[in-house]
Amino acid sequence: MSQGKRQDDDDRRTYGMVSIAVPAERVTRPAFGRHGFAGAALVVDWPAIVGSAVAAHTLPLRIKFPPKERTGGTLEVKVASSAFATELQHLEPLILERINGYFGWQAVARLKLRHGPLPKRAAAAAPPPPDAEAAERLAGTLARVDDPDLRAALERLGRHVLRKGNP
Q1: Residue 24 carries which DSSP code?
Q2: What pairing do the DSSP bridges indicate for beta strands 58-64 and 73-79?
Q3: pLDDT of the residue at 104
Q4: What is the pLDDT of residues 17-72, one digit of tens each?
Q5: Phi, psi for 100 (deg, rounded to 5)
Q6: DSSP secondary-structure letter at 1?
Q7: In whole angstroms, what is the distance from residue 32 CA to residue 42 CA?
Q8: Which region, left, alpha or beta, applies to residue 116 given φ > 0 means left and ψ of -120 to 50 means alpha?
Q9: 129 and 163 Cβ atoms separated by less than 8 Å
Q10: Among 57, 81, 92, 160, which residue carries the largest CB count within 10 Å?
Q11: Which has the closest alpha carbon to 31: 39, 23, 22, 43?
């Protein structure tokens, strides 16, 4: 190995913490690129783009653009049921607006729906219940609240905050 090669390798070496986004993008770009996605972002951000209710019944498959264009594409979406496909047809203008807002330009002009089963999604793990000491502190704090409806609402909020790990 030449000295120049070693020097180049040393220049690329990083120390400390490195964001995983860059290496992950290098790995996923070829796979997603074959399906018309510039990166994994549309697939990963799908629930944030279209909303969790729509994302629970759909999955973006690929974007097909006209030759030598990056606008006016057709997004192929897998839909879990015929009933939801009908609902999705009614929501198409809103979904297109959200997708294009996400990209920042008119990337997608229409949706193409494909029926089929969606892959199983991993269930989110339930957070552990709050510890006994924190629950006692919450109960002591809420004992001063006179209104029972307000006390119940504050208790639900307090338990939620404690489950998230905030003291």
Answers
A1: H
A2: antiparallel
A3: 87
A4: 555 544 555 555 555 445 445 446 778 888 989 998 899 999 998 888 899 888 89
A5: -70, -30
A6: -
A7: 10
A8: left
A9: yes
A10: 57
A11: 39
Annotate 73-107 with b (16+ C-beta within 10 A) or e (fewer): bbbbbbbeeeebbeebeebeeebbebbeebbeeeb
Q: What is the DSSP letter of 106?
A: -
Q: Pick the range with the lowest mean pLDDT from 4-13, 124-133, 150-159.
A: 4-13
pLDDT at 142 over 60: yes
For residue 150, the one-letter residue type is L
pLDDT of residue 124: 56
| Confidence band, pLDDT 50/70/90 cuts, at residue 97 | very high
- Within the chain, strands assigned E span 58-64, 73-79, 108-115
Q: How far apart are CA 23 and CA 97, in angstroms?
A: 31
**Cβ contacts of 92 within 8 Å, gap of 6 or more:** 110, 111
According to DSSP, residue 70 is labeled S
- The 10 Å Cβ neighbour count of residue 130 is 20
The side-by-side arrangement of strands in the sheet containing 73-79 is 58-64, 73-79, 108-115
